[in-house]
Amino acid sequence: MLFTAPFWLLSLLLPTGSVPAAAQVTPPAPKIVWSAARVLTWDDFKARPNTDRLEALTSSSIDANIGCTDYQFSGKVQATFTPSESWVRNATRASPALLRHEQLHFDLTEVHTRLLRQKLTLIKFDCEHLQPAFNNLTKVAFLTWQRDEARYDGETNHGLNAAKQQEWDQKTQQRLKDLASFAE
Hints:
Layout: H1 7-13, E1 32-33, E2 56-57, E3 60-69, E4 72-81, E5 87-88, H2 96-122, H3 130-156, H4 162-178
Antiparallel strand pairs: 1-4, 2-5, 3-4
Helix pairs in contact: 2-3, 2-4
């Protein structure tokens, strides 16, 4: 088990002087915003494996920032990939098919990001009661996204079922095309 402590805590525990090089904290790699022109590579997976069950793990999220200025709603929603939470057990042995499977997790995140953007254009938000309304909308959107991700892994057996993997790939690419008007 790896224990990390905040820098200020280390400075309290260590004798006066500088923090040893081994204790220096490297900032995590910045999140990657989804782009059709930017596919993932194994170099993007920076974390260490935390389970023996999987060969790789993609950590992606739907980041939403909303607000009101002069009672005018505005929002920005992005699909992001977090390198510092994503990992591959052995990048030199990992197959291109496994990388494609992980990329499709990120693509599914973009599909659900576009669906949320679509919903945001259809709903008239009351800036006086913005937070509860937005929370309800995102709760449903996130549950739908997580259900889709679980179904994807279940049906493809984490990418091991090549026929189902290809089916999901085609279906997801079609969904991205169908929602192209909600791309950034």
